[in-house]
Write a structure and sequence with these properties.
Layout (H helix, E strand, L loop, with lengths): L10 H4 L19 E5 L2 E5 L12 E7 L1 E2 L2 E7 L8 E2 L2 E3 L6 H13 L3 E12 L7 E10 L11 E7 L11 H17 L1
Bound molecules: zinc ion.
Length: 189
């Protein structure tokens, strides 16, 4: 079921040209790009070699780890949204699966040793200033007893009840994910 926050329109930027604003020449043959209608959208295209710029969201993955009705959150040590909180997550590397990425990010940002047990949800991220994101969040269980230790892009980590979050959440995809978690925890109780 697609959900958006009010005011968000996926096609706001794409309706014009699908142009990131800084791409002027073909990355392959250096010819100046033109705008062409391709697959119902206006896209940048190379009139010489035929290359078309398909702008797609970037995949990110992370995990939902719960201890006694408390969820693991990290505080961002880097921009954008430095100082705000998220579920542990990061961008999927080219040679890893989303689930591998989620387990790796958990270990890097929280020090926890976890394994994916299922899917929590898939969320569209429209408010990351760097790019549009598809965020895949997994349910996870801890496979070793560890105290969480913040690392990598996180400078604080902890387990928090949903009605007492430690601060503002950085991205709306994470707000939606915690809404879904709240429903689950209520129905499990
Ligand atoms: Zn070209």
């Amino acid at each position: 079921m697609p959900r958006r926050f009010k005011g968000e329109r996926m096609h706001d930027t794409m309706a014009k040209t699908n142009n990131p604003g800084d791409l002027k020449y073909c990355p392959y043959c250096r010819t100046e790009l033109i705008i062409r209608e391709e697959g119902l959208l206006h896209r940048l295209a190379c009139p010489d070699c035929g290359w078309i710029y398909y702008r797609n969201p970037v995949a990110a993955a992370g995990g939902v780890v719960v201890r006694d009705n408390r969820v693991c959150l990290v505080r961002r040590a880097i921009e954008p949204r430095r100082g705000d909180w998220t579920l542990p997550a990061g961008f999927v590397e080219y040679d890893e699966t989303p689930a591998e990425c989620a387990e790796r990010e958990l270990e890097e940002e929280t020090g926890l040793k976890v394994a994916v047990t299922g899917l929590h949800g898939v969320y569209a991220g429209f408010d990351d200033p760097r790019q549009r994101v598809v965020l895949v969040l997994y349910r996870m269980r801890e496979i070793a007893v560890r105290e969480p230790v913040a690392g990598d892009d996180a400078d604080e980590v902890g387990f928090y009840t949903l009605d007492q979050l430690p601060g503002r959440l950085a991205f709306r995809a994470h707000v939606m994910a915690l809404d879904d978690l709240a429903k689950q925890l209520t129905s499990d109780a």
